[in-house]
Amino acid sequence: PLLASAHESSCIRLWSIQGNLMKELLPFSGCPSGPLTALCTDIFCKILLTGSKEGYVFRWNMASFLKDSRNRKNEIKEQLCWRAHAAEVVNLFIEEEKNVIVTASIDGSVRLWHARTGYYFGYFGQARKFDLGDTSRLILPSDVSDFSAIIKERSRHTEKKKVMYPLVLDRDK
């Protein structure tokens, strides 16, 4: 079992039940994270979701870390970030059966998002029914203009390439 805490410095800290700090995380995506205001996990604690004061939602994959937290190779990977609200996210949760994330903001809106892609489904109180099966339509809320960003893993291995310089200064020419 782990305890997770979200902080104003955008840092997420994972603690053991004994109170020992196990891991510190900072978002590395291009999204400005700002102070974190909401935190939740899926039922098996493999997915960690955080919401920020700027209205962003971040999705982290913790599965490999939970298998063996002592192994340094098993990292927690940031997978996705998107702007969910124009104002602060105050609560969020994941509904695993429907593969949906629900977010709430201080602006009074409650919105639905696809859990794996961050696609917007709609908001509570809208006239049309939610279509949870259609993730091909890229729509956004009226107050948000940024699409979700899938975070690619950082390249850790840089190969040294032998570069040949065929151009040589010829003083005679």
Keywords:
four-stranded antiparallel beta sheet, Methylamine Dehydrogenase, Chain H, 3% helix, 37% strand, mainly beta, 173 residues, 1 helix, five-stranded antiparallel beta sheet, globular
CATH C-level: Mainly Beta
CATH domain topology: Methylamine Dehydrogenase, Chain H
Radius of gyration: 21 Å
Q: Report low-confidence residues grouped into runs of 5 or more.
A: 154-165
CATH architecture: 7 Propeller
| Strand-residue proportion | 35-45%
SSE order: EEEEEEHEEEEEE
- Assembly classification: single chain
Q: What gap, in angstroms, lies between the N and C termini?
A: 74 Å
Number of domains: 1
Overall average pLDDT: 78
Structural class: mainly beta
| Proportion in helices | under 10%
WD repeats: 82-118
Protein name: WDR64 protein
InterPro entries: Beta-prop_IP5PC_F, WD-EF-hand_domain, WD40/YVTN_repeat-like_dom_sf, WD40_repeat_dom_sf, WD40_rpt
Organism: Prunella fulvescens (Brown accentor)
What does this molecule look like?
- It is a single chain.
- The chain has a five-stranded antiparallel sheet with strand order 4-5-6-7-12, with no helix packed on it. It has a four-stranded antiparallel sheet with strand order 8-9-10-11, with no helix packed on it. Strands 1-2-3 form a three-stranded antiparallel sheet, with no helix packed on it.
- It is built from one helix and twelve strands.
- The relative contact order is 0.14.
- The chain is globular.
- It has 173 residues and is mostly beta strands.
- It has one domain (2-148): Methylamine Dehydrogenase, Chain H.
- The N and C termini lie far apart (74 Å).
